[in-house]
Design brief:
By secondary structure, the chain is of the alpha+beta class. It has 20 helices and 10 strands. β9 and β10 form a beta hairpin. The chain binds tetradecanoyl-COA.
Length: 623
Amino acid sequence: MLKIVKQVTLVPRTQYFMFYSTAALPRTKVQHEVKEETKSNSSFMANIFRGNLVSAQVFPYPDVLSPEDKELTISLQDPISRFYKEFNDAAKSDENCKTDDKTLDKLWELGCFGAQVSHDYGGMGINNTQYGRLGQIVGYNDLGLAITLGAHQSIGFKGILLYGTSEQKAKYLPQVTTGKIYAAFALTESSAGSDASSIKSKAVLSADGKHYVLNGTKIWISNGGFANIFTVFAQTEVVDKASGAKKDKVTAFIVERAFGGVTNGPPEKKMGINASSTTEVYFDNVKVPVENVLGEVGEGFKVAMNILNTGRYGMGAILSGSMKYCIEKAVDHVNNRVQFGKKLKEYKGIQEKIAQMNVIQYVTESMAFTISQNMDAGSQDYHLEAAISKVFASEAAWYVCDEAIQVLGGMGYMKEAGLERVLRDLRIFRIFEGTNDILRLFVALTGIQYAGSHLKELQKAFRNPAANFGFIFKEASRRAASTVGIGGTDLSPFIVNELQDHGKATAECIDLFGQSVESLLIKYGKNIIHEQNVLNRLANAAIDIFTMVVVLSRSSRAVQKNLPTAHHELNMTKAWCYQANERCRTNLRNATSSQQLLHYELLSDIAEKVTETGAVNTTHVLE
Ligand code: MYA
């Protein structure tokens, strides 16, 4: 087991409270400022930024499906798996750059386009966990088709489910569930990708107040070529209630192609997910009735963010299915291929690859279903975890598919092996639904903001210590205990005996993480937002902690339930914790050490030189 010596000292009171005050900060931008967050939060991840263990989301491993739900899930799995095996042809769709209508019709018949819509509107009425399970099957079989399905319901009409009025639901949900009407999510513009709130599309209220006139161009819209219903985000003028000043704020709209003025560009030529349609969509003086505002006027950015939040866990689910597919290909090969007189599976190097692929798949799946089950249990605090699962799953799936190709060698590079398409399809997952780069910053800064607000509460408490004695005493005791190495995070009650060492090491990582966040806030204050190298290391450490915790929890469950796979799950958990623990500590060291800062400066200097000259800037050895 890994052991660290705790070297944290209590920060003197004055120093502690000088550095951080959010009160005077203007509105936040992820890249620009840290803001105050006062709401309490049940998220496991948000709380470790404060150095707190709030375990309910992760221990014991969530288990929300009733026996009837489980039965329903199994009854849905079979026909859907059969559809992919017997009816769908992913390779053909990739080659044709479209999924043919007959295939899509069959999916409509199976009800797959309205999976989470309630029975009242003709949907399957399944929950996030069941949707995730079906997503795994799609991800196993056809990622291009997963995009068509996901763009339609994970984001296309999700806003109507989340924010729609009863009239909007009654009008639109039956169409998108059983009426063969496709939906799409239209946020991105040429100058607004990661910086989603800077969209330029504009919706102006008509003089009679009955409709908005919408103008703008959206790019890279999945299902753009055939969707008839769009969730569109545009700037609208709003009057600030307090100051009376007018300003543009994003509003969400339900827009029908039938309104007129909605057209789309030709299909984009892409690296992968060719089975899905990606186009520009143009809105030219489209008259959108005021009844089609989704959510509140001026609150559209939050509508967009929440739609994306609810969809992101789905990436973990579908990609854990894709990984399963890649692993099966690799395993089939190593079981049969003989080189140097032995089957490939007998070589240690190959064993390591196969094991690592499986471990990573296990982690991804454990994460996706931790989140989906928390969502189904009614939690609203899963945004950090969902972003983490999207980042992890997209990188893990890329790694697994790449390794599967490597295991197959030259055969893996050939189309007929069925892996190169998957690799091409997978590449976009690190880019869309929030690039992994922006999501790492989102995780680090959202967590830091939550930690910062706690420090601010303490700051306030110290202004009147007598009145806040209990609060201050509790905090001081916690810190003192942690400093002398007792009373830190304790995961032992949640974890089976076989994993206690790894639980202890993970708990140490959690403590180290909280201490690192605090020392970074002390060092940088609100300027932490400019320290992207540091934030990325912090996000990576956060990701590793979440992954360790979910597998510790899931494999403990496997042991407690005496599952036939329990021993195997324990081994995978041990292997993962061993790796993730080391990496987590390295990342935290790299986030806080001054030596590393010199390294980051060096990298910035190199990048500056190259960007200045516009090309590789070395003198060739032959000159
Ligand atoms: S769709 C396009 C995807 N685009 C993006 O994801 C854009 C990425 N950018 C962002 O997410 C935001 O712009 C960032 C913030 C994060 C950079 N949850 O000032 P701010 C609140 C809740 O920090 P910014 C696609 O790719 C924040 O608290 N709230 O914002 C389709 C604040 O609130 P307040 C949030 O710096 C692919 C306010 O917003 C969140 O401008 C097809 C402003 O915050 C959040 N996350 O930017 C996929 N973030 O004002 C197909 C911010 O109250 C699907 N806020 O303080 C495939 C799936 C398959 C599923 C299965 C199939 C079966």
